[in-house]
Amino acid sequence: MAADEQRLRVAVLGAGLIGIDLVDRIRRSRKLELALVAGRDRDSLGLRRAAEKGHPTTAGGIRTVVEAGPFDVVFDATNAESHAEHWVALHPTGATLIDLTPTGLGAAFVPGVDSGPPAVHRHLNLVSCGGQAAIPVLHAVSRDCTPTYIEVVSTAASASAGRATRLNLDQYISTTAAAIRTFTGTRDAKVMVNLSPARPAPPFRVAMTVLADGIRPAPVRTRIAAAARAVRTYTPGFKVTSLAVDPGRISVAVEVTASGGRLPRHAGSVDIINAAAVLLAEQSAAASR
User: Is 129 among the catalytic positions?
Assistant: First the structure.
């Protein structure tokens, strides 16, 4: 069988900033074939760009995605309010739905922690951009101690936050906190988000504070360094910018700059979640062979 024939047939639902970048990433993938880009506004920049590159587009939303199927994978890059409806519509088609909205529905997946997609799940969620940046580090820390409290503060450039992101901030906070509790075992997690209008636009930054007993500085530093290396295999612009390990307290900050493609460097929040989404789809392709 030729390589092209082995590609998964995929669709992108949503033509905003995240959807536009997904189109570029899928075009570069050897395992995925972009068969449809769906939005709601036929005059949107995202649909125009996709059409200019020769991809089929539609302004009919989820209805036309179902009609144009079946697809192996559908990326939902719309908004949290619409996602549940999208899953109901796509579930009977057999497609795997990868959720880039912060609904918290489906099985949570973080490549920096999980070795591959859960084989029994066709509804997978990527938590949030902040979750993708923080959870690999926090999970690494929790392997050496039991956190009693975790606080995560994400700061993103206003220019990298589209309309759907701004509308979904409440869901972003609750979904990210729930995932942190799941991946670390802590009972108390607090999440905050800042959108910065600063010029020049700042890179995506995530600051984490972990309170725990029995912290051993050397193993903690080693585990965090290993977690950062793992994330950089699919998000090269990820780096730990500060780390302090004190009795009962760990303070760590990471920064994500977008690298490659059309994204500006400050759009690290988009870069890390889209990189995770495409990696997940490609792993699904490998598992299906």
Answer: yes
